[in-house]
Write a structure and sequence with these properties.
six-stranded mixed β-sheet, about 35% helix, 2 domains, alpha/beta, 9 helices, about 20% strand, Rossmann fold
Length: about 280
């Protein structure tokens, strides 16, 4: 994206941002600032590196910051300081998006929407058998979305108790991570950090196991193509990259904050331009 032109910032410019730690690597400013510029919204989006959610949300009210994206490790902690949350946040137990309406803070979760949208471009979720690797916050959001759309979900995690907690909360099945290689399903989703840079030669399942799944999704987007996705493509499987979920959830955030249709093509172009530059 072009550098922000500070000459266009005035006393009327609305402020948005992302809170978490670390966030200096975040791609959210690139997408949202491109979107604001494209449709002529007088706003700017910045990164705020903090773990102190109470002070961050106090500042949001005090400074009239219009919207926050929320990332690790703040997605759970912000909930106690919000005035209202929707059913998705209540069920998932995590909030990744906050809107400030005249000092009243409303929380939602667009992670599940971003994941579901990416998957529905490749398959009908109703009745689809899905295996989800990992039992963290992203796993909870994705499992919520899959089950909401009628999928049949099994969660596999190294610590079985964590998978069983999600299975109990949402009404699905839990298995040890070692069982994943022997399961067969229409969809496999990796929500763990296995394969993320710099450990790009790692996979969450053995290479031979990719043949057991029709579609393979990896929410990791650094590298752009993980070893899991590379091996899936070589095996002739459909793949879904983490970039697709990232872009979709950001577009839903933009629409939640502004009430305007997100310029997804512009956001995608800005995102890939930045990523290609970073990986040149």
């Amino acid at each position: 994206m072009d550098r922000l032109d500070i000459r266009n910032i005035t006393a009327h410019t609305a402020l948005y941002g992302i809170i978490g730690k670390p966030v200096r690597h975040s791609l959210s400013p690139v997408m949202h600032n491109a979107a604001f510029k494209a449709i002529g919204i007088d706003a700017v989006y910045l990164a705020f590196e903090t773990k102190d959610v109470k002070k961050a949300l106090d500042a949001m009210k005090c400074l009239d910051i219009k919207g926050f994206s929320v990332t690790i490790p703040n997605k759970e902690g912000v909930i106690d300081y919000l005035d209202e949350i929707d059913n998705a946040v209540a069920r998932i137990g995590a909030c990744n998006t906050i809107k400030n309406s005249n000092g009243r803070l409303f929380g939602t979760n667009t992670d599940w929407l971003g994941a579901v949208e990416a998957i529905r471009e490749k398959a009908d979720l109703s009745g689809l058998k899905a295996v989800v690797l990992g039992a963290g916050g992203s796993s909870r959001a994705i499992c919520y979305g899959l089950l909401k759309k009628g999928a049949d979900v099994t969660i596999c995690n190294r610590t079985l108790e964590r998978a069983e907690k999600i299975a109990t909360d949402f009404g699905c099945r839990a298995r040890p991570l070692t069982d994943a290689a022997n399961l067969r399903a229409g969809l496999l989703i990796n929500t763990t950090s296995v394969g993320m840079s710099p450990n790009v030669d790692e996979m969450p399942i053995p290479e031979h196991a990719v043949k057991n799944f029709d579609i393979i999704m990896d929410i990791v987007y650094s590298p752009l193509e993980t070893k899991l996705l590379k091996k899936a493509k070589e095996a002739g499987k459909k793949t879904i990259s983490g970039i697709e979920m990232l872009l979709n959830q950001a577009a839903w955030q933009f629409e939640f904050w502004t009430g305007e249709k997100a310029p997804r093509d512009v956001m995608k172009e800005a995102l890939y331009k930045t990523l290609n530059g970073n990986h040149a």
